[in-house]
Write a structure and sequence with these properties.
Blueprint lengths: L1 E8 L9 E9 L4 E8 L8 H7 L12 H12 L3 E4 L2 H14 L8 E3 H8 L8 H7 L10 H18 L4 H6 L7 H10 L6 E6 L5 E7 L2 H10 L3 H9 L2 E6 L3 H15 L14 E7 L5 E7 L8 E3 L2 H14 L10 H10 L7 E6 L6 E7 L2 E8 L2 H5 L1 H7 L1 E2 L6 H11 L4 E4 L2
Parallel strand pairs: 1-4, 4-5
Antiparallel strand pairs: 1-2, 2-3, 6-7, 6-8, 9-10, 9-11, 12-13, 12-16, 13-14, 14-15
Helix pairs in contact: 4-6, 9-10, 11-16
């Protein structure tokens, strides 16, 4: 659980400032579950430049509650959570100052979205909140007011969680619990939803030891933790925590699992064999204009229909395709059958978006195909984000390992319906 926070202050000498406004959104990793927003009477004057920046003046705060009057509510909403803020050291320091004045030791783990953004979204021109959210397509209103800045930080944090392929955030929060395995596992299972997504098992050091995909996360993980197979028992000995990501779309779950297993190489996952591109299926045409297929050696300057690691596999595949599509002798016109074969082995469009349901009712998932290659995926609530490729490109999660992605996507589309395919040419 996270407490995403922003405070506005009076300005003035270091450690002598006061809070003038506070906004806290309690966030469960997917949605806001509670919120608290209030002006605060700091009982000291606001610096003129701060009044100009925030629009908050002394007169507005005369009847506002003093900090001690809202301190209990702040403790309630931040209980058992991680404080998240843009430049969290400042916001935490201000809360600590106010609680110190009341004789209370305020302490809470922190995550800073400035530091996280620099790690997860590197090479941006600026990491100031206004510039940062603008560069990634997140709208912001009521700038320099606590609620507006905190809401923008919520959306930024959602994006960081999505793009955190190195698990920077999760690994920093792994706790090695001392509870009995049975109680610990039940607690871990209870936090999982009955929804499609991808799950990660972590050891006591936060290292990922297993990655899986399921249409029902809770049921699948429960099978792991109650199973009696050798693999399940070995996992049970080492698992300390579970993290998960809802995907809404089963296709995204399949693609993400494919990428994450190759990236993290968990000890209990059977790694997918890397495709060694030695032989290829090539589309050719003879002097009579008759199209035909042949197996050839790989050349990275040519786009082929398929790739194979051995000549035997390649020849077996060619024979299968000849039989399936009723391909005859080269002297006979097979163009119609071959055109259908090529269509079946290719994406519908060179550049396209596969739009499907998202994680919530007001969200859509998008899989991006660019230049006939799977690029990545994202989640969007605003139509202009989907219709603007430049914004889209900055927001999607780009997969590092795209081997087998074409096969995964085409196989899925053949068996399942999605909401729509958008030609982006």
């Amino acid at each position: 659980m996270y407490s995403i926070l922003d405070v506005e202050t009076t300005g003035g000498k270091y450690n002598e400032e006061g809070i003038t406004e506070i906004a806290i959104y309690r966030f469960d990793g997917e949605k806001i579950v509670d919120q608290f927003i209030s002006l605060i009477n700091p009982e000291i004057p606001i610096q003129p430049f701060v009044q100009h920046l925030t629009g908050i003046n002394d007169k507005m705060l005369v009847n506002a509650p003093k900090f001690y009057q809202i301190a209990k509510r702040i403790l309630e909403i931040t209980n058992n959570s991680v404080l998240v803020a843009h430049n969290s050291s400042f916001d935490f320091r201000m809360l600590k100052i106010e609680f110190d004045r009341l004789g209370y030791q305020f302490n809470i783990p922190q995550l800073c979205t400035v530091k996280l953004s620099k790690k997860i979204i590197p090479d941006l021109d600026s990491y100031k909140l206004g510039n940062l959210v603008k560069s990634v397509g997140i709208p912001i209103s009521n700038r320099h007011r606590a609620s507006g800045d905190a809401l923008a930080t919520v959306e930024l944090f959602k994006l960081l969680l999505l793009k955190d392929t190195e698990k920077v955030i999760v690994n920093s929060l792994i706790i090695n619990t001392k509870t009995s395995p049975k109680n610990k596992w039940q607690k871990l299972i209870n936090k999982l939803p009955n929804e499609v997504g991808i799950y990660y098992f972590h050891d006591q050091n936060g290292k990922i030891i297993y990655i899986g995909k399921s249409n029902n996360l809770k049921n699948r993980v429960n099978q792991h933790l109650t199973g009696k197979s050798k693999k399940s028992l070995n996992i049970q000995l080492e698992i300390c925590d579970i993290s998960f990501e809802r995907t809404g779309s089963e296709l995204i779950a399949l693609l993400k699992e494919n990428n994450e297993v190759k990236k993290h190489k968990p000890k209990f996952n059977k790694l997918l064999k890397k495709i060694i591109r030695k032989f290829c299926l090539e589309l050719c045409e003879n002097l009579e204009g008759h199209k035909y297929l042949r197996i050839c050696h790989f050349d990275d300057t040519i786009n082929y229909l398929e790739y194979y690691s051995s000549l035997k596999t390649a020849n077996n595949r060619l024979e299968y395709l000849k039989n399936k599509y009723s391909l005859n002798d080269l002297n006979i016109d097979n163009n119609v059958q071959i055109d259908q074969l090529v269509k079946d082995l290719s994406y519908k469009h060179i550049n396209m978006l596969l739009v499907d349901k998202g994680r919530d009712i007001d969200e859509k998932s998008v899989v991006v195909i660019k230049d006939n290659t799977y690029l990545g995926y994202g989640f969007f609530t605003l139509n202009h984000q989907i219709n603007n490729f430049d914004v889209l490109d900055s927001l999607i999660v780009k997969n590092e390992f795209i081997e087998n992605s074409k096969e995964v996507i085409l196989k899925y589309l053949k068996k399942n319906k999605i909401e729509k395919i958008v030609d982006f040419e």
